[in-house]
Each structure stands twice: as C-alpha cells, then as structure tokens.
Amino acid sequence: MTMAEPRPLTPTPVAQKRPVYEIARLSKTYARNRLTALTDVNLTLYKGEFVSVVGSSGCGKSTLLKIMSGLMPPTTGRVVLEGTPVTGNRSDIGMMFQQATLLPWKTTIENIVLPIEIREGRAAARAARPRAHELLQLVGLGDFANVYPGELSGGMAQRASICRMLISDPAVLLLDEPFSALDELTRDFMNMELQRICAERQATAFLVTHSLAEAVILSDRILVMKPRPGRVVEEIVIDLPRPRTLEMINTPYFGEIVAHIRDLLGKEAHE
Amino acid sequence: MTASPDMASPDPQSDTVWVERESLIDRIPRWVAMLALAVIVITIWDLVTTRTGWISPIILPSPGETLDDLIFVGHNLITGGYMLEALWTTTRTVFWAFLIAIAIGFSLGVLVGETKFGERAVMPYLVAIDTMPKVAFAPLFIAWLGFDISSKVALAAFIATFPIVVSTAAGLYSASENERLLFKSIGATRWQTLTRLKLPTGLPQIFTGLKIAAVGVMAGAITGEFLGGGQGFGALIRQSASTLDTPRVFALILYLSLLGLALFFSVAWLQRRLVFWNKSDRLGGVM
Ligand SMILES: Nc1ncnc2c1ncn2[C@@H]1O[C@H](COP(=O)(O)OP(=O)(O)O)[C@@H](O)[C@H]1O
Ligand SMILES: [Mg+2]
C-alpha cells in the first residue's frame, strides 16, 4: 500500500493559530550523487506548536532540518519564516544537534552566550550574561555557570546547549535528535524539561527523532516520513491533554498511536 | 593492585575476606623509583668499564672519567670559557631556527588547512616530504649559505618546519562536522570560525607538531655543525671525537641535551597553560 497524500487523522485543532513557518513544494537533490533526498514536502508550523517528524534513518529528516535552518539551500520550493524567505543562517532560528557541542575551552556560561559573541561582539556577550544566568536557572544548571564542559554530564551538557539555543530568543526551535545520545532515564527527564521550557516560552518547536514514544509524548502533530525519495506520507494529530506526563505512555490511546505509526513505517520495510 | 582470599578462615560458614594490596611499585614514590633505576644503570656501567675492563675506555668511558669531564666542561661553562661561547652559538642557532620554523610552518599550515586546494593538492606532498630524512639536505644548505651560522639555522628550520605545517593543517581539520554546523548556524564568518573554533580545536595537535619540531631543530643544528664546522657545540663534539676523547664527548652531549630538554619542556609548559582543557597527552604523567 502506498499513501502519497498527507492525510490528517482528525482535523487540525491549531488551524486558527498564526503560521510561523511555511514550507511548500520543497525538494532537495544532492548535486554530488544526484540523490533525491526530499520531494514535495509541504508543512506549516503554527505559533506555540510542537511538531515532530519520524522516519527511518536516511529518509531525509536531517536534510529537511538543515534546509529549514538555512544551513543548506533547497533545490526547489518555498521556505518562509515569519514572512521572510530563509536564505541563510538566521538569529530567529534556534538549532540543537545530537551532540551538545560545547566548546571545551569556554565555561558553560561563555558557551551559552557564544551566539551573541559571534553575531554582536564581546561587549554584547557580556551584557547577555544575566539573561544566560536566568536560562541556566530555568534548566537547573544555576550552579554550573563557571564550570568547564568537561565537568558536565551528558544530560547537563545538552541542557546547556538548550540555553545556548534560547539565548537569541528564536522564533522557532529546530531539534535534530537532541537527546538520542543520552541514556533512557535522562532522556525521559530531558523530554519533560523540554516540554516545560516550550510551554513557558510558548515556543514553536520542530523535532526530528526516531523514538516514536518521544514523538508522541511531546507533539501536537507528528509527520511520518518515508525514504527514497524522502517525503511526508502522513500527518497525525496527537489528542492528549497538556501538560503531558510520562504515565501517559501506559494509556491505550498512546499505545494505539505508536502502533499505528510503527505499522506505517513497517510497511515501507516490506515494499 | 592484587587481591586474594584470606585463607586463614577456612570455615565455609564465614564470609571470605578479600585483602586488597597495592603492589610494591605503586607504593614507592616516583622519584625513588627513578633514582633506583639510575643507581642500577650506573653500577652496571661502572662494572663493565672500571671493575672488569670488559669494554675499552675508548668505546665507553667509565662513570668516573665521565664525571671528571662533566666537572671540567661545567667549570668551563660557568666561568665563561670557550665552551660557553660554543653553547651560546648553538643556542642562538636553535632559537632562530625554531622561531623561523614556527612562523613559516604555522602560516603555511593555516593556508593548507583553510583552503580546499591546500587540503586536496598540497597536503599529500607535505606528508610525503615530512617522512623524508631531511638532514640529507645538509650539504646543500652548506653549499648555498657557507660555513657560518646561517646555513645551520636554515637546515634546522627546514627540518622543523614540516611537522609544524602538517600538524597545523591537520589540527584545523579536526573540528567536527557538528561544531562547524553550529558555527554556521550562529552566523560565524570564515575568520571567526578559524580563530574561535578551528585553531583552538587544533591546538593539541599543533603542540604535538611543535614538540616534534623542537627535537628536529636540535638535530638539525647539531648536524649542521658537524658537517659545516663553525663555532657551535656540534663542532666541539666532533673535535673531541676525532681525538678519541670519548669522556669529553659524553660530557658535551649531556650538557647539549640540557638545551634540548629546556626547549622541549618550554613547549610542553606552554601547552599545559594554553590547552588546559585537554589532559590526554601528558608525557607519562610528568608534564
Ligand atoms: N551531503 C550529502 N551529500 C549527498 N547525499 C547526502 C548528503 N547528506 C545526506 N545525504 C543522503 O541523503 C539521504 C537523507 O539523509 P539524512 O537527511 O541525513 O537522513 P536522516 O537524517 O533521516 O537519517 C541519505 O540517503 C543520505 O545518504
Ligand atoms: Mg539524521
């Protein structure tokens, strides 16, 4: 069975909200190996919404995120953030990668103000320190501002990189498997932290993951992608109340959604 | 660390007690171990030379003779004799050669490491040349520049430049894909990415190159002095060797190695100050 059209299970409840990020008819073919990584991707992110994209490895998730963040140009299509086309890196986009990538020669707080230092200079970075302190408090790292990253655990380092992403007050957060290098307990904890931070700031977030449970627990909507060529095959609205808790993982509804997505992804393996 | 069950309690009902013992070598302080080794080596040395006469004094002088010459050379150095002048000449050679090697090596390394052409076309040649026995160029440098200090400086600098170029270029490549993406995503310019990401990330490797260069610059200076004559310490060693004054040669080499050690450990010290976050490549726990 093939499903070419994105088909929501239920009507999108956030439709009345303001669109923040709009992508239309996006495709990407890598020139190097003439590989079509993405074809005809359409999606809209609304203000304050949390959207995840799941799919097997190699289906173009990271490619999509790199295009959305302006790190890489698309081959065709429209990519518009807050009314302006994305043509290069932008300070209103916050990025987070699988590795925390904190610079080991800078203290935690110096790492957090790095985007300010690069964009606006050292004076502005100094001026941003009180704000960085607030962010560190927000993620529970208040006592670690002047510690070097070598002394932080994996989870703490990722929390610091959340602060670095938030320091420039981005309109949209793009997260590429941010917690997949962490152990499962830390990961659950970090997901709950992420939910709290997003709710507090009414952040618009776009998460790439290959953990179905993680996607369901965090998202308002999930996009399911399939490879060769990479495309969005289905959009699933998650109708769980907020705030979400880890206990919800054990509800039948949760299990149904996970099973449904697994079924969708599994079919592709047999195609 | 060893542990063994305490056999004094053979009663099967009672719990086995495991006694942990640190091995002897873990318990004695490092300086004691080092001193002990020195005493052993010198004793054997003394045995095979003075005591038994197995080895001719022309090949290996006894510890006593060497000590006499160490004192003689040391006295000459302290009182500002001709040997101090020779040591000073060699020190100047090494200093200038190292400075030139760092300046040229670092600049070339950045050029090679920062450009696609450098990475693809130039780097393979550099790595190939780096493995060549570069002292073989010594006669050429003497033919070009004559017998004064400049030919020695040139040879020593030539030898020391390559490890610095290669390690600097390799150091610049060592920033990870994620770190580059991060810098790109926060809008860093090429210059910012170079100075605030690639250079600091490459520092440990650059220092490894500098240490190799510090050894090479000494070898180059002394080789130059062996072949090109002049006033340096290498010339003194060669003269003593040609009169089969082996104890003097030994003493001179020992003092010369102090110069090499001073250079090497200055670099290591600087590395410890600058690359404070990377503790992985300390020398045998000493530096
Ligand atoms: N720079 C590139 N050049 C050529 N092909 C690439 C490049 N980056 C990724 N690809 C290919 O594009 C496809 C999608 O990759 P990616 O977006 O990284 O997938 P995902 O993140 O979902 O695992 C893969 O087949 C991958 O091999
Ligand atoms: Mg990926």
Model description:
The complex is a heterodimer of chains A (271) and B (287). In chain A, 34% of the residues lie in helices and 24% in strands. By secondary structure, chain A is of the alpha/beta class. In chain A, the strands form 2 sheets. Chain A has a 6-stranded mixed sheet with strand order 6-7-8-3-9-10, with helices on both faces. Chain A is globular and about 50 Å long. Chain B is mainly alpha-helical and 287 residues long. Chain B folds into 2 domains: 24-55; 59-285, MetI-like (MetI-like fold), CATH 1.10.3720. Chain B has 11 helices and 2 strands, in the order ββααααααααααα. Chain B has helices spanning 24-27, 30-51, 63-78, 82-114, 116-130, 138-145, 149-173, 177-185, 190-228, 233-242, 246-274; strands at residues 2-5, 18-21. In chain B, strands 1-2 form a two-stranded antiparallel sheet. Chain A binds chain B through residues 66, 69-71, 88-91, 93, 95, 97-99, 101, 103-105, 114-115, 118-119, 148, 150, 168, and chain B through 176, 178-179, 181-188, 192, 196-197, 200, 276-278. The structure holds adenosine-5'-diphosphate and magnesium ion. Magnesium ion is lined by residues 61-62 of chain A.
